[in-house]
Design a protein that fits this description.
The complex is a heterodimer of chains A (about 110) and B (about 900). Chain A has about 110 residues and is of the alpha+beta class. Helix content of chain A is about 50%, strand content about 15%. The chains are: A alpha+beta (about 110), B alpha+beta (about 900).
Amino acid sequence: MTLLASRPELVPGTLDMLVLRILQWGPQHGYAIGKSIRAQSADVLQVEAGSLYPALQRLAKKRWVTAKWGQTDANQRAKFYTLTAEGKKQLGREESRWAELVTAIARVMKPETE
Amino acid sequence: MSIFTWLKRRLSLDEPDFEEEIRSHLAMAEREHQEAGQPEARHAARKDFGNVTLTTAAAREVWRPRWLESLHDWADDVRYAVRALAKKPGFTLTVTGVLTLGIGLNSAVFTMLKSMALNPLAGVPTAARLHVLHGETQTGREVSVSYPDYRQLRDQNQAFLSLMGTAPFRASLGRGRDAHRVFGEMVTGNYFEVLGVGAQRGRTLLPSDEGAPGANPVVVISDSLWRRDYGADPNITGRILLVNNIPLTIVGVASASFHGTVVSYDIEVYLPVTMAGQVGFADKTDASQVLTDERAELLYPHGYLRPGVTAASAGAQAQALFAQLTRGRPRDEGAQMLKLVPLWKSPNGAQTFLLPTLAVLAAMGLLVLLISCANIAGLVLVRGMSRRGEIAVRLALGAGRARVMRLLVLENLAVSIPGALLGVVLAARGVPILSGYAEWLAAPDRLFFNIEVDLFIIGFAALLAACSALVFGLVPAWQTSHINLVTVINEDSSTRGAARGSLRKGLVIAQVAISVALLVSSGLVSRSLDAARRADPGFVQDHLGAVALDLKANAYDTARGLVFYRELLRAARTGSGVESATLSVHVPLRLIETPSQAVKVEGYVPRRDEELAMLWNTIAPGYFHTLQTKVLAGREFEDRDDAEAEPRMLVNQTFAQRFWGGADQALGKRVHTGKEWRTIIGVVADLKYSRIDEAARPYFYLPLWQAYRPSVVLQLRGAQPMKTLLEQARASVARLDPDLPIVYARPMAEMTGGATLFLDLTAAMLSLFGTAGMMLAALGTYGLVSYSVTASARETGIRMALGASGAMVLRGFLGNGLRLGLTGAALGILGAFGAIQLLGHLLYGVSSTDAASFAKALVIVIGGVALATLVPAWRATRTSPQHALRHQ
């Protein structure tokens, strides 16, 4: 069952990395993570809740993040996710793999510039 | 289920938590929309979020482990299989029943085989590794070893860890009329130590109990004797037990599970072998010399081999030692060599009788199982074909072939597992019934079989069930799952598939063949049994009673014993209703081999290596008159054939025929019977001496008045009810000597029943197998034939619509059925010839090509096939053509 109804903009398999990246700045709740991705991508990447929440569960299951209920600044109860040490390592791995991928794709797409 | 609940909690999505997280998301989104001044903020938030249910499902999916997922599939399949089977109770019950019978019978037989071969002695877990030494005479008779020889073997051999010796004997416990007879063992001091058997009360016998002859009057008793005769008295040690009128001190009760080392005998007393002289353990030798005579047949040495020593080298070593020991002894009827055998081949016990019989039964049992499997294969095949539509739809809807196969195999397992369990229950109930039957036949002697349904057999049955389900379910399942979707869905499911047709035919042929082989075998054995029951034993058993006495038990000497015998005969003969009475040492037809005696025949020079050893009996006057056996020449013994007269003897017809060519020619000839030359004064007709199925053999008789023997059987013939006759005889004995133990008092006909014991048992089992196999084959054939009849309903309909009569259609089906039946029967007859080779030793009085047995088996099987064809075929002709055609 693939419910990852990804928009063409979001490269499949990158959502986990994006979420980890956002959490690097500190604990955050799901709604804010979604907004952050959108904001930081200048509204290009729209992460749907239907993908985001299962992804968070997946990261929690792999123990890359931990979750804890808390209060937002607006005094709303929300579940905050925190990056674990294992999650940081995973982020590092995914970042370097992503960098390799981007470079490789770039080489293919624009070979003459190299 | 609790484990699932636990797993769920640990390994699944925390749903309330997740819902709350979504609510919090929606609340934040709603507030943001509100702040942006959007109308219907709540609705907009929901819309942005998307499908909550699908999100939850996706989150749930994250947590579900792969194996749990497949477990769910399996559970679904199992549930589906059980439901599908519940819808077809006929099929389900038939398969379960077939397997129950097949597996039950096999478990029963293998339980017995296993306990006989692998675990022969209760309470001795490693008994299967015990080895036994026995002597062998020139003619191959297996004999025990003397006590002096045993001691040499024990002390000098290097192959055994240690060597104990044992000699089974019949002991009478108590005194006079209260005495009763049990089995005992005379054992060496290390007996319990070698076996590793302990005592539950007091102590076992110890090497220190094997002292000077007669110096250790002690006895260890069995658990059952302790409970039966002493009410499990906790202070049993120190009490006195009279064994053959010798007072022995009970020093202990053997461990409860231990029943001695003689397979099938329930041993109740264990005495030091050094008491053999006192309790009168002597058959051929003087009681005082039983321990010192190096030629006395007394003990069977048993022991475990040292690690690393092979049976072959141990046997060679023992034989070399024995050759040294026996150098210089005469080459006569005594042991000439020493053989080493595993316990299951030991001549000391019933295993050499029982194992071949059980092997035959096991072979028959496997045939029944084979039929069961063919049966199930047939049923599954038929069922698979009638479900081709359903399976095709499943495949068309995208189910993998593996998944469909799995479903079919699961269905097979769902019927075979209950079948296996019921089979084990059947075996568990059946085995005690069977051994109980054997014990009942042997009563009042106490038998014991170390038989229990154990994990090994349950595992065996489960394995059989799983294998039969997998192997015989997989083939049809594989065929079914490889059907061509298009043809099945577009067309009907009736008349195609030559390959499947031939598999079906093959199954019918196989079942018919196996059941013919089974029926022929069981027919031959039951005809053997009939022949044995009708066989003339050479004497008249009815109205003949036997009362066994043991004068050793009361320390009679020869002179007093002879006086007692004469008085006893006089008293017995004057009893009311007694026609005649006599005494003899041996009673015919007791299944046991009596000892033989080396003889010399005057004027006959034996060939080199020819052993002239004959069976013999010592008898009082009137023996043949009482047994109603013909005297062919001369006369039988009379009172005047006593110590005053010259040594005399009688021989049987075979003896006279062999050496002199006839009864009359034998009169006056002389034979040397060990001590002196005796003159033949009469020739009598042959008897069956130990077994009803024995071959004729030479036999001779000595007069009791000339050759005193301390233990005899009083035999009386009278028209009175047997009970009165025996009671009267007991009373006469008690009047003469109230302290003399009466070993037994039984009707002769009851005692000789033992001679057909194993034939009886085998016949009972085989006819059970034969009937079961026949029923299964009939059932299987019926199923397969009726399926093919039903499957060609359309063809039948067309033929009948075109004017074929019911009789013609019927004839067509019958022809097909009979063709298969006859092919199977022909193969079965070939198989039966093979089975008969196995049965050889059980056959008696019938030729192995006995036409009647074959004819009966053929009639039953062909009749069964015809019936199995006709009934469904008749039903097919009754359906109207329109109906048959429309039905398709």
